[in-house]
Amino acid sequence: CLAMAPRQQVLRQLQLGSSFVKRDDGRYWIIMLAHMNKNSKATTFSIGPELTRAYDIYFSVVRPRLIGAKSHSYVFCKQTGEAPGPTFDFSEWTR
User: Which residues pair with 74 in a beta bridge?
Assistant: First the structure.
């Protein structure tokens, strides 16, 4: 779903406004700091423009319904709306 999908633990850590941002060019960008990468090097890449509308819908419609009254900045969450923890299995959730 992310084109150049990073490891599951990185998906679990993505947060709006810091590691997952929408820039002035209208595209979503993933900003992975060195500690988030296996090779300990910072990486920044944009999400394909064909996914922009899907993420816009996710952030405006789907994610608010998932998190309900809870408040956190994580891009993805548990089915209960809680922030992902160290045991959150992204692949299980998306199956």
Answer: 15
Tell me the H-state helices in the chain: 8-13, 52-57, 63-67, 90-94
Count Cα atoms within 13 angstroms, Cβ side, for 48. Answer: 8
**pLDDT (tens digit, 9 = 90+) per residue, 21-80?**
999 999 999 888 777 667 778 888 888 889 999 999 999 999 999 999 999 999 988 888
Query: Strand 20-22 to strand 28-32: parallel, antiparallel, or no bridges (unpaired)?
Result: antiparallel
- Give which of 15, 7, 93, 25 is closest to 59, Cα–Cα: 15
Say what the pTM is.
0.75
